[in-house]
Specification:
17 helices; binds 4-fluoro-L-phenylalanine; mainly alpha; Amino acid/polyamine transporter I
Length: about 450
């Protein structure tokens, strides 16, 4: 059977950028930046993106396109019967975990969309918002709404994944990413012109390193992976659908640039508003759900823009959930010769069930902690700050030491047919910089050394 694939350069870019751009940029980046003190954290984040993210991004594309296979078999094809395929196993496992809690937050977005459409959301005053939002997400007992929305998110994701790459993934991403960007720019202007906005700008751009902890550095690294969809073979899987003529180095740069620009833009929307309205930057996962409606409240045609924006975030989150689901679906479909539909339904159901405790963490399971973390926080921490960096470490080691830089560069340059000026920097990064950097950060911040 011929494998499905992307039909155009813009389609690949939109799908991969669609995977990268999501709740990580608009929800997670602002809230962890707020918790970690602002500019200094952002600086470390940018260093991680630049020195580790870009090389790992290219590595995933190169492996995927060379092997033209799924997360696990790709390693097996390139290095048969070697332990490297464990990297893919880890990726499949991580997909289950991330999607399980990601769908909690995507569900909140959909819950808000419902209220924006009926006009309810715009009638809530900023002072009432924390309570209002708190009631929505307080899952358990008689409030099953967040679980219902989580279910909706999983069903939509499953449907698109069943449709396959060209018809499903590519079509939806292409259209919507550019609109999201435009709207963020409008919002950034609104936020920057609020009275007292400068404090937010300072928070974002004036580093104070005393506010950054060792754990903050791990968070920055973990978030670099999370935001770029790296370390769990998602980009590798998308890379496997890319044709042999595409220029992978520039593709890697473009995805990274788009993702980082959107995250920074989201920060510029959120923080000036947080300070202008006297909200607290470190309020945690609910930050954007309180801040954004406050900004819209102060805007002409605010309720219309609010609805549009929420719909776009909803879509941005779906282009990410489909990429997460694609990792296990492509593996189980190809390896066990099962129908894509059956596999998708089964995996979607398992992930939905796994996600329920995360959703309940903001309600009836709020007091239950494991290692001092709620179930939601534990899933997020384990996947984002441990499994993704470990995955990235293994991918760099595979390129640098397992498969070899020469082979990787051969694939990256389409067998020497295109120029790749930074090939030796790429080699150095995958051989030494990324593995050592990730390893040291992991050991330090988990208290091993
Ligand atoms: N990069 C996505 C975001 O920032 O929302 C989340 C994500 C998607 C993480 C795919 C990991 C992944 F493999």
């Amino acid at each position: 059977m011929k494998r499905d694939g992307f039909s155009s350069r813009f389609g690949i870019l939109a799908a991969a950028a669609g995977s990268a751009i999501g709740l990580g940029n608009i929800w997670r980046f602002p809230y962890i930046t707020g918790e970690n003190g602002g500019a200094a954290f952002i600086l470390v984040y940018l260093v991680c993106i630049f020195l580790i993210g870009i090389p790992v991004m290219l590595s995933e594309l190169v492996i995927g396109r060379n092997a033209q296979s799924n997360a696990i078999s790709s390693f097996d094809k390139i290095k048969p019967n070697s332990p490297w395929k464990f990297t893919g196993v880890l990726g499949v496992l991580t997909a289950f975990i991330i999607l399980s809690f990601y769908s909690t937050i995507a569900g909140w977005v959909f819950a808000y969309i419902g209220r924006a459409v009926t006009g309810q959301l715009s009638s809530i005053s900023p002072a009432e918002l924390p309570q209002y939002f708190g009631n929505i997400i307080n899952a358990g007992g008689s409030n099953l709404e967040p679980i219902l929305w989580q279910f909706v998110v999983m069903v939509i994701t499953g449907f698109i994944v069943i449709a396959g790459i060209k018809k499903g993934v590519e079509k939806y991403s292409k259209l919507l990413m550019p609109i999201l960007l435009g709207l963020l720019v409008v919002l950034a202007i609104r936020s920057l012109t609020l009275e007292g906005a400068y404090k937010g700008v300072e928070f974002l751009f004036k580093p104070d390193f005393s506010s950054l902890s060792v754990e903050g550095v791990l968070e920055a690294l973990g978030h670099a992976f999370f935001s770029l969809s790296l370390g769990m073979c998602t980009i590798l899987t998308y890379g496997s659908y890319v044709n042999k003529k595409e220029r992978l180095p520039s593709l890697a740069l473009q995805i990274t640039f788009a993702d980082t620009a959107i995250a920074l833009l989201a920060g510029i929307v959120i923080f000036p508003a947080v300070f202008a309205y006297g909200l607290s930057p470190d309020s945690g996962p609910d930050l954007i759900f309180i801040t954004l409606p406050t900004v819209f409240y102060s805007m002409p045609f605010g309720s219309f823009f609010q609805m549009l924006f929420l719909v776009l975030i909803g879509i941005a989150s779906i282009t990410s959930t489909i990429s997460l689901l694609e990792v296990p679906v492509s593996y189980f479909t190809e390896e066990f010769k099962l129908s894509r539909k059956k596999v998708t339904i089964l995996i979607t159901s398992i992930i939905f069930l796994l996600g329920i405790p995360s959703t309940l963490s903001f309600g009836s399971l709020g007091d239950v902690t494991i290692f001092g973390k709620t179930f939601f926080d534990l899933m997020d921490f384990t996947a984002s700050n441990i499994l993704l960096p470990v995955g990235g470490l293994l991918i760099s080691l595979f390129i640098g030491w397992g498969w070899g830089i020469r082979n990787a560069v051969k694939e990256a340059t389409n067998d020497g047919n295109i120029e790749f000026k930074l090939a030796s920097a790429y080699g150095f990064a995958t051989k030494y910089l990324a593995p050592i950097g990730i390893f040291v950060i992991l050991l330090y911040s988990t208290g091993v050394i």
